[in-house]
Design brief:
Blueprint lengths: L10 H12 L2 H13 L3 H29 L3 H9 L6 H33 L8 H12 L2 H20 L2 H28 L4 H9 L8 H14 L6 H6 L8 H29 L9 H13 L1 H38 L3 H20 L10 H5 L3 H28 L2 H9 L7 H27 L4 H4 L1
Helix pairs in contact: 1-8, 1-12, 1-14, 2-10, 2-12, 3-4, 3-9, 3-10, 3-12, 3-17, 3-18, 3-19, 4-5, 5-7, 5-14, 5-15, 5-17, 6-13, 7-8, 7-14, 7-15, 8-12, 8-14, 9-12, 10-19, 13-14, 14-15, 17-19
Bound molecules: 4-fluoro-L-phenylalanine.
């Protein structure tokens, strides 16, 4: 079907772009620290289970919805369920989530840029843990530095999206993703020779049952949505640029595998360093920004080099994810309002940039000084909470329910099998079972725990 719409140049281009969306701060910053907080081993196993049994089936569903309609999220639901249908709200939820998440994601990416530059000036060498902790504090509370990086990062993101699907998003992901994978592998090889390697492997892979709190199960599940970029219409939008010949199932499985591979590699890079230098694996969100620089600063020139590479990788990973979030809002305006890509990118990118300013200055507390008092969280944390804990799981839930229960079964099956040689329908049946029953139930559990309706910790 020739729609005049942009399409990926190749299947590998799509896989790298979708993997670029999935692989981001969630893999390199968040996954290692939540693994550390939840005691490693069992948490990792449960996370792998969530990715395979819940995340991947929803990922297939999102790509399939996009590919079948050749439209981004809101328009895809209009096409499938009708212009007046409430399912369009799922699309809007995604556009809203993209808008919100990108506005503060850009601020964290800005910290990574700042750390890259600090690494280049060998800032961390010889600094004590307190000094490094204080440095992060200074950065967090400095409105102008955060604003500067937020501006630079949003300009880069807009620059990629404006160039289009093939010449912008695909081209940059084809460069950044192999670079990221290659360098990460090298870093992991370096880690093998550290004295803490064995302890780290044991920590990440050996199931220490006593360390897992049941709420960790829900954290693993919630993170599997964030890390695969689900529930926000990203994969619907990226799927909409796929041609009908591409095997959706195989591509989705590759994206999940790459995303999981990088998350595990991030642990295998980080924990050997942490254990070799006697630091605490459960240091929490500060693991990347407060613990790693201490260690980099302790190992001289190699540390400086590793530190530059590491933080630059974090910036790349964040950029390819940010691009996918901006593409959701941009594609919505192109598809629904008929705007040109240039106009849609500038306007949404500009609006997200402005919306991110209170997050960039949240630490300095200058723009909404009373916000924290009202909501108990600063501007940045409030929106992170809203988007990651509510909008993404809800989006994922509705996608699973729509694709599992309401989508035309003939279309669903044809799309699932389109582009594949495979004829065994058992795989389709298994996928459908997970989509219809397991995924919705799991998401309802996450939401119930987060609302406080149930407290799974008390059940066991
Ligand atoms: N998957 C990205 C990460 O792990 O950092 C974050 C993300 C990107 C979430 C795109 C949602 C999204 F639509």
């Amino acid at each position: 079907m020739k729609t005049g719409r942009e399409q990926w140049g190749s299947r590998i281009g799509f896989i790298l772009a979708a993997a670029g969306s999935a692989i981001g701060l969630g893999n390199i910053w968040k996954f290692p620290y939540i693994t550390g907080e939840n005691g490693g081993g069992v948490f990792v196993l449960i996370y792998l289970g969530c990715i395979a049994l819940i995340g991947t089936p929803i990922l297939i569903a999102e790509i399939l919805i996009g590919r079948s309609t050749q439209k981004s999220s809101v328009s895809a639901f209009s096409d499938l369920a009708g212009k007046e249908s409430n399912w369009r709200m799922v699309g809007f939820l995604g556009v809203g989530a993209g808008f919100i998440i990108l506005s503060y994601y850009s601020v964290v990416a800005g910290w990574a840029m700042n750390y890259t530059f600090m690494s280049i000036t060998n800032f961390f060498e010889g600094k004590s843990a307190e000094q490094i902790g204080a440095t992060f504090g200074t950065l967090f509370t400095s409105a102008d530095i955060n604003l500067l990086w937020h501006t630079v990062f949003m300009v880069m993101t807009i620059g990629v999206v404006i160039a289009g699907v093939k010449r912008g998003i695909e081209k940059w992901n084809k460069i950044l993703m192999p670079l990221l994978l290659g360098i990460f592998l090298l870093l992991a090889i370096f880690s093998i020779f550290l004295p803490g390697w064995k302890a780290a492997v044991n920590f990440v892979f050996y199931p220490h049952l006593d360390k897992l709190k049941p709420s960790g199960v829900l954290e693993a599940l919630g993170h599997s949505f964030f890390t695969l970029s689900l529930g926000m219409g990203t994969m619907i939008t990226y799927g909409s640029y796929l041609n009908k010949k591409t095997n959706v199932v195989k591509s989705a499985v590759m994206v999940s595998a790459l995303d999981t591979g990088i998350a595990l590699l991030a642990c295998l890079v980080m924990f050997p360093i942490v254990f070799s230098f006697g630091h605490d694996p459960s240091a929490g969100p500060g693991l990347v920004f407060k613990t790693l620089p201490i260690i980099f600063g302790e190992i001289g020139n190699i540390g400086m080099l590793l530190s530059i590479i590491f933080f630059a990788l974090l910036v790349f990973a964040a950029l390819s994810s940010a691009v996918s979030m901006l593409e959701v809002t941009t594609a919505y305006l192109i598809d629904e309002k008929g705007w040109s890509r240039k106009k849609a990118t500038y306007i949404t990118g500009g609006a997200i940039y402005l919306f991110g300013i209170p997050s960039a200055t949240a630490g300095a507390n200058t723009i909404f000084p009373d916000w924290a008092g009202m909501y108990g969280k600063n501007f940045f944390d409030s929106f992170d909470y809203l988007a990651s804990n509510w909008m993404l799981p809800l989006g994922g839930l509705f996608v699973a329910i729509y694709a599992g229960w309401f989508m035309d079964p003939m279309l669903r099956q044809a799309e699932f099998k389109g582009g594949t040689k495979f004829t065994q329908s058992w795989f389709y049946s298994v996928w459908l079972f997970f989509l219809k029953f397991i995924a919705p139930l799991a998401v309802i559990l996450i939401i119930a725990q987060r609302v406080g309706v149930i407290d799974i910790d008390k059940w066991i």
